[in-house]
Amino acid sequence: MRVLITGAEGQLGKELCSMFRQEGYTVFPLNKKELNITDVSHINGVLDQLNPGVIINAAAFTKVDLCETEIDKALAINALGPYYLAKEAKKRKMKLLHISTDYVFSGESVLPYKETDTMQPINMYGKSKQLGEELACAINSDITIVRTSWLYGHSSSNFVHTMKRLAETRDEIHVVHDQQGCPTYTKDLGVAIKKLLAAPPGIYHVSNSGSCTWFEFAAEIMKLLNKPTKVIPISSEEYKMAAKRPKNSVLCHEKMNQLGIHVRHWQEGLREYIREEWGTKG
After folding, report:
1. Which family does it belong to (predicted)?
2. In the prediction, which pLDDT does 156 show?
3. How does strand 144-148 pair with strand 230-234?
4. 125 annotated active-site
């Protein structure tokens, strides 16, 4: 199978490229220069040249706070890009799997979010991702959308690496305690994505199982890294950010589980990740 992966330089893109290569797939890892998903003529040229059977769109503008001011960029990459890919994939009868986010939800529910729950994003990042889903599905009913959350992988720009860096220079770290979600290891997400390529098209929620707050996530990181740094819980109100975050963005896995796809607990995934990154036993 020939697999084209957009956003190949991101932490999920890198994981997917490595995984599919190891399993013998022909992989086309494309960065934003090699495939500008906001330019439909560029998309046409690349798809005609490479002729993949599967497109995985892992490209996104994920800087949540910057999306509040760089609105045009957020809409171009997160909304128009998926629409163009869905349109051109349909023309060529190529399978498209698009990565979306837990931030399409308001966070007001006390229950994990199901695929059928109403999208009500509270920040521009979430709004741009919602629009991307809607536009893509309107033009192509055969696509697969995977919503995931709190990603970390083999990249220096994720929450785990940030906590480690801060722990090396500080005695204490302040982390919000009133946002609930689920950390997701890109390796575990990648395995689920591969399985979903064989599943019926539709929307699927995929993250590691279990849930925690950012404070609990940070505390677990310090524990596994054997760092003495104290993690201090604070409220979102105290930790001022440009964009609002959902209070609860835990995703329900019932639909995924019904297909026989089960993802391990986030603490197990984190333990393996830290061991692979730094050799710490945890």
Report:
1. Belongs to the dTDP-4-dehydrorhamnose reductase family.
2. 83
3. unpaired
4. yes
